[in-house]
Amino acid sequence: MSVMSGMAIYFIIWWTSLFAMLPFGLRTQAEENNIVRGTVASAPARPRIWLAFLRTTVVATVIFGLFWFVTQKLGYGLDDIPHFFPDL
Q: How far is Cα 21 from Cα 15, in angstroms, rounded to an integer?
């Protein structure tokens, strides 16, 4: 795997993890009983986006590390997935 391929795969994993990690630890304005006029009650009370970025980076790094280990050290790839349908 080249460096550019690794960076592209890491970015895809990071971006997907970001949307999976955003809801964790989120408290809405309705839960805090502090709804700001002009916003919806389901808006975050304190977004803390940098904390979400940090958690996402940790999770994405672990996932990418596992991906790298399986593909580069163990030698598995897409060709090792069994075919369920015959080639036509």
A: 10
